[in-house]
Amino acid sequence: MKHEAYEGTYQGEKAVWLRSGKYEAALLPEIGGNLIAFRDAETGSRFLHEPAEDEMEAFKARPMIHGIPVLFPPNRYEDGAFPWEGRTLQLPVNEPETGNHLHGFVYNMPWEIEEFGTTASGSYVVTSIRVDESHPSYASFPFRYTIRLKYELGELGLAQQVQVVNEGDGALPCLLAFHTAVRAPFHPGSAASDCKVKLTIGERWELDGRMLPTSRHQPLSPEEEQLKGEGVYPFYAAMDNHYTAVPQQGRNRMELTDAKAGLTLVYDVGTSYKQWMIWNNFATEGFFCPEPQVNLVNAPKSPLPAEEIGLFRLEPGEIWEERARLYVKAAR
Fold first, then answer.
1. DSSP labels, 271-302
2. Which InterPro entries does the annotation name (predicted)?
């Protein structure tokens, strides 16, 4: 099996390309370290929602619904206020319709390429972003830290390793998610109606008019019961929903099954992700976002226990690390 890792371009943007056997992937270091493409070159399958050539400017302006954007800290914070360690940080209010801060500081910032190369079993790239007093986000989120991502491509698909290192003098809120955008259908010979999605959800969080949790749960609809059971058509209704994550058989995952192609795309994330978001672009066929998330939305203001809602903290010098994998198997 041939493996390659090299610098190139993706629709005019600097990219690192990985190839391993039938698979290929591309990462955009200057646009948030976004893993923008994961493909099967033999079948023509594209597993992630990629921007079309005429969408690149819109993608760069709002790189949230393509590839695997990194959110740190993720999702919404009421009025941009972020209580932490006896003080309240003021994050920019960048979602005027809700009056909230949305999605953190690293998804549209330049990342550095630390290394890329090949091994006996595949190809890989390591990219990172380091935040200190010189970084534009430090004024509103004054912590020193490094986020590092390693992607490896091989016979078993695409593996991801994420690492957060606290390089400051105080406790760091380790709140992170991926706004992963999955194509449905991913196989070129199929339609969205051939697809069913399964997600390891538990309970649905009630959200108020500003899309913030009320700390209460809502009953699952019949379709949501299917979502955590045998699977459901991904666009049965508009979804912008927040759920607890409940691993099944020791694994926290999304499975997208294409009955026509006889294939299942598995997105197996770690159990550190205590929550899921799922957004399907107002029930528009083509892609949806199963988003593994460490923390409850607006977690620093929640009255619920920190461990229950994933309000993780890193002490100085501590490291948090988690893994995930995207791979394809025969449908059952």
1. TT--EEEEE-TTT-TEEEEEEEESS-TTGGG-
2. Aldose_1/G6P_1-epimerase, Gal_mutarotase_sf_dom, GH-type_carb-bd
